[in-house]
Amino acid sequence: MTKARLRVGIVGCGSISLQYLHNAPLFGGVEMRACADINREVSVRRAEQFRLKAMDVDDLIAAPDIDLVLNLTVPSAHFDVSMRAIEAGKHVFTEKPLAATAAEGSRLAARAAERGLAIGAAPDTFLGPAGQLARHLLDIDAIGQPIIGTAFMLSHGMEHWHPDPAFYFQPGGGPVMDMGPYYLTMLVNLIGPVRRVQAVATSGQSERLVTAEGPRKGTKVKVGTPTSLLSLLEFSSGLQLTFGASWDVHRHSNQPIELHGTKGSLRLPDPDTFGGVVSVSDHGTPWQDIDTGDRPFGAPNWPVKSPDRANYRMVGLADLAASLVEARKPRASGDVALHVLKVMEAILVAARTGVAEAIVGEVDRAAPLTEERARKLLA
Ligand SMILES: NC(=O)c1ccc[n+]([C@@H]2O[C@H](COP(=O)([O-])OP(=O)(O)OC[C@H]3O[C@@H](n4cnc5c(N)ncnc54)[C@H](O)[C@@H]3O)[C@@H](O)[C@H]2O)c1
User: Quick check: pTM over 0.90?
Assistant: First the structure.
């Protein structure tokens, strides 16, 4: 039986569209057809580069030969573009965050469910072999019951590499909304939902100087959202975890994620990559390092920048395409993205009020993506 390919139209043809389009030919169940952007010139350039049809945004969303809208616009446009796509009867896969607010994210999830449409969301890095190995080790009780943990996303911001970084420093951006999804989605996939959040926040600078090459180089961007946040997360499982997210840090020595359980400890690589080394210690023995580079989606593959990266963005969308054929939920689901959005919003609110925020609603962990299933997604 030949499987029908999910016909995809991209809305938003900026930086990240390059990565999706570069990876798309790896996957058998999807076909990139068309692209659109409010900036027509940008969509025409992308269309020429990848042999797509350049369309107006409204036309792409309405097109009868498009099954899914891949929303790669800036965060402030996520809700509007995704909702219009759902209203037009399209499945949606969106870049993170699901929406600018949890209220908007809930409306998207509810409307997609009402219309019987799938909604999936980035990040899908947790489907990489590092995240899946860590999940397996937890599931086989390698470290016992996780008790405490740490997660740190510390860097010096985005203005040195992104040519148009203003949106990162406005509400909806900031290190928690922008980078939090990688850490929190990974943690929710490992541990399950978060039930309570406490936090503090500050900003290191009121303006940021753009040093990335491009037309904005040398200009300043106003900071309208905290750029350093420390939070305490209580998971429904009982795990307590410190999560630090900052764009005010020049250098540090903290591990991206560590979990400590009744029998041992587990260390994960940067959750913004698919591969890397997972380390495990049994009752305090020296770390046993397991390199996941030879597993599906584990090999470095991204030559443009960060050559150390396994960057297979598209796995989540390919799994969503398979989920439609198999009549199951996508692993990188809107439900998980909504839970993560609620946690991120709670971190920001708790930091403002100084009062702990309860997270309303639970979410199930996605089924593991076995190596066999991962291989099946490939063309
Ligand atoms: N750049 C990265 O490395 C990266 C990595 C992971 C995730 N993301 C996420 O991907 C998304 C896009 O980021 P980017 O870096 O590609 O941004 P970008 O600014 O390079 O591109 C966004 C594009 O969306 C277009 N756009 C904005 N509003 C629109 C609308 N209403 N309708 C149609 N087009 C619209 C813009 O004209 C622009 O071309 C963001 O949510 C970001 O968090 C980016």
Answer: yes
Q: Which domain holds residue 71?
A: 6-121
| Residues present in the chain in total | 379
Q: What is the pLDDT of residues 303-330, one digit of tens each?
A: 655 667 899 999 999 999 999 999 999 9
Given a contact cutoff of 8 angstroms between Cβ atoms, the answer to whether 265 and 143 are in contact is: yes
Candidate from 46, 73, 213 with most ligand 1 atoms within 8 A of CB, to mutate: 73
State which H helix or E strand residue 109 sits in.
Answer: helix 102-114
Supply the CATH number for residue 132's domain: 3.30.360.10
End-to-end CA distance of the chain: 15
Residues 185 and 248 in one domain: yes
Q: Name the domain boundary from 84, 103, 121.
A: 121
Of 13, 16, 182, 317, the one to substitute when testing ligand 1's pocket (max ligand atoms within 8 A of C-beta) is 16
Per-residue pLDDT reduced to its tens digit, 23-33:
999 999 999 99
Query: Cβ neighbours of residue 354 under 8 Å, at least 6 residues apart?
Result: 200
The secondary structure of residue 166, as a DSSP letter, is G
Q: Indicate if 254 and 199 belong to the same structural domain.
A: yes
Closest CA to 275 of 308, 233, 247: 308
Residues 226 and 352 in one domain: yes
How many domains in the chain?
A: 2
Q: From residue 364, how far is each of 8, 115, 150, 277 by CA, in Å?
A: 27, 22, 22, 26
Q: Round the average pLDDT of the chain to a whole number and report it.
A: 96
Please tell me the distance from the alpha carbon of residue 67 to that of residue 143, in angstroms, as a whole number: 43
Examine the pLDDT at 70 and tell me if it is beyond 50: yes
Answer yes or no: do 88 and 102 share one domain: yes
CA of 298 to the centre of ligand 1 (A): 25
